[in-house]
């Protein structure tokens, strides 16, 4: 392979890789939007966590693993 062919291969891989990352990123955005729309998660609640970051702040959601450990 010549350096020109290697450079072309690098450019093709870069474009394909960028396209794949872009598609995955948009899929993730759509997933977040749909899950919030269905009511599965409230991401606005997690966004406010950065603003309300104190030790005495209320807990956002209970950890089911900790509750199961307490029962046993």
What this model shows, in words?
The protein has about 70 residues and is mostly helical. It has one domain. It is built from three helices and no strands. The longest helix has about 35 residues, at about 5-40. The chain is elongated and about 65 Å long. The N and C termini lie far apart (about 65 Å). About 0% of the residues are buried.
Features:
72 residues, single chain, 3 helices, mainly alpha
Offer a quick outline of the entry:
This protein is mainly alpha-helical.
Q: What integer value in Å does the Rg equal? A: 22 Å
Spans where pLDDT lies below 50 across 5 or more residues:
none
Kindly name the structural category: mainly alpha
- Coarse shape: elongated
> What is the number of helices?
3
What is the H/E string?
HHH
| Rounded average pLDDT | 85
What is the percentage of strand-forming residues? under 5%
Number of domains: 1
Give the number of DSSP strands.
0
Q: What about the largest sheet?
A: none
Measured distance between first and last alpha carbons: 65 Å
Helix content: over 70%
